[in-house]
Write a structure and sequence with these properties.
The chain is mainly alpha-helical. The chain is elongated and about 55 Å long. Helix content is about 70%, strand content about 0%.
């Protein structure tokens, strides 16, 4: 039996992830997760409201950290730069949890119900970040666009980091935002060729 609440929580997360990968999310019960973790099912429900939330633990911490970092970003930054600054400060949350992050993403990708929950969680974080930008004086429309775009770049960086662990998450994050800037540079119009 785990000795502390944090230990029980960690064991439940690990057990759930193992079972979801072995048997699939839909085929796994909370009782089976608890048994694998060496606790009873009541303990499972003390830590998580349902078997989906085992994979989304920490989302509220990430949202709070991001909004705090946006609020504290230097005042001379543009909205996307504020977000890059915030993402770089919270990336440690993901770096520290890398052994859980990779299999977690695979389980979510393979399960429609989890993909739906992942999108809802992302929308919640994006709205919180947009509101933090609005609190910094960014207009409503631009704050929403910056939050959506910044989250997409962050999401891409996380997936690139999972696929290529030879570089840090920070390196992937900087690359994603460089790519984002490159997309916004206006290219000169193509010369019309004869016969076009």
């Amino acid at each position: 039996m785990p000795r502390s609440g944090a230990e029980a929580r960690r064991r439940l997360q690990q057990a759930a992830l193992e079972l979801y990968r072995e048997r699939g999310f839909e085929q796994t019960t909370t009782a089976e997760i608890a048994a694998r973790a060496g606790v009873n099912e009541r303990t499972f429900f003390r830590h998580f409201p349902d078997k989906r939330e085992v994979l989304f633990d920490g989302e509220s911490d990430l949202r709070a950290a991001l909004t705090r970092e946006v609020a504290e970003a230097p005042h001379d930054l543009q909205p996307l730069e504020m977000l890059l600054c915030a993402f770089r400060k919270v990336e440690r949350i993901l770096e520290d949890n890398r052994p859980f992050a990779e299999p977690r993403l695979h389980v979510i990708a393979a399960t429609p119900a989890l993909r739906e929950r992942d999108l809802a969680k992302a929308a919640s974080i994006t709205e919180a970040v947009a509101e933090a930008l609005r609190q910094r004086g960014v207009t409503h429309r631009l704050a929403g666009l910056a939050a959506q775009t910044g989250w997409a770049a962050f999401h891409q960086a996380v997936h690139a980091w999972i696929d290529d662990p030879s570089q840090s998450l920070d390196a992937h994050l900087l690359q994603a935002f460089d790519d984002l800037r490159a997309l916004s540079v206006t290219a000169p119009p193509a010369q019309e060729r004869p016969g076009d």
